[in-house]
Amino acid sequence: FTSNTPVTVTVKQPPTASISTQVACSNSNAPGLFDITVTSTATNPSFTVTYSNSVNGAKYTNSNFSGPSISILDTIPHPNSAISYTLDTVYDNSGNQCTGIISGTAVIYPIPTATISAKSDTICISNPVELDIVLSGIGPWVVKYNDGIGGADQTVNIATNPYSLNLANPGSGSYSYTIVSVADQNCSSNGTGIAKVTVNNPAQVTLLIEDPGTLNRVVNDSYCQGFGPRNLVFSISPVSGTGNSFQVEYTINNGPIQSQLVSRPDSSISLNPTVGSYNYKVENVFDLTKANCKG
Q1: For residue 233, which of 45, 46, 121, 268 is within the disulfide window of CB 3.0 to 4.6 Å?
Q2: Three-class SS of 76-117
Q3: Distance (Å, rounded) from C-alpha 194 to C-alpha 150?
Q4: Is 254 left (phi over 0), alpha (psi -120 to 50) or beta?
Q5: Is 182 exposed, middle or buried (0-12, 13-18, 19+ CB in 10 A)?
Q6: In this structure, are residues 265 and 206 in contact, taking their beta carbons and an 8 Å threshold?
Q7: d(Cα 220, Cα 29) in Å, to the nearest integer?
Q8: Nearest by Cα to 60 from 85, 27, 93, 39
Q9: What is the value of pTM for the model shown?
């Protein structure tokens, strides 16, 4: 017996899937973007697509992908390295589940960051300004910063992280150093943080003899015993500036060093010595800020 029933064989074209980068720079606030595109000759197609990333090896599945393309955000943290997304499989969801052809890799780079801070926020006029810059991204980096003095932005090439930036002392005053921009080999961004530095104006001390009755002050004085006492005045100059308290070391007739706490603009102590000649001399003066600058 011979059957005349025809036999039908359908050969389906397997789907083709590719992955590509759309937005190549990424961070948590501005995630990167990659596209998966599937092409097929099927009518009303439906596909299952799987892909994975290179940072933690996680695998992802989209089991009802109708195409032709989908955009996916890069939400995996990778502040110091690139991440690659690679297709693993694609097949249609018909009864035959034809396995497709995959190609491409989506590479997304971290957006670099740069944060600036001061090693010390109060320094002496004889010391350099020492700043620290902490970076993320894939070095080397190009950092632009502003020194807060009103000049043009400065550029520094950085190969190590963190980075120490030492600058010449700008003179007494208060300064704010800010990052303008940072770029690594792939991406760029604005920096963060402000490094505020105060440079102390060195204090000077003048010794004066004051008559407490008239308040007259002179550099040299003589008086008769019984017509005193006198005040020894420690006068700080300039009369305004960084720090209001000072430790003054002085000697009397080249004797042992004595110490006196002095407030700006001046402080005094009472003198009532016995008959004789006395020479008062300032040996050192230190401001009582954390910098402890010597005047």
Answers
A1: 268
A2: CCCCCCCEEEEEEEEEECCCCCCECEEECEEEEEECCEEEEE
A3: 15
A4: left
A5: buried
A6: no
A7: 70
A8: 85
A9: 0.78
Task: Give residue 11's Cα distance to chain centre.
Answer: 62
Q: What is the per-residue pLDDT across 174-223, written as a single tens digit (0 to 9) for each?
A: 899 999 999 999 999 998 889 999 988 888 899 999 998 889 999 998 88
Q: What is the CA radius of gyration of the chain?
A: 38
Please state, in angstroms and rounded to a whole number, the distance separating the CA atoms of residues 50 and 60: 5
Each residue's pLDDT tens digit, 35-65: 999 988 766 778 889 999 999 989 999 888 8
CA 144 to chain centroid, in Å, comes to: 12
Distance CA 90, CA 39 (A): 11
Residue with tokens 């208060």: 174
Helices and strands of the chain, counted as H and E runs: 0, 25
Q: Which residues contact 64 (CB under 8 A, 6 or more apart)?
A: 46, 48, 93
Residues 6+ apart with CB under 8 A from 288: 243, 245, 246, 247
CA 18 to chain centre: 40
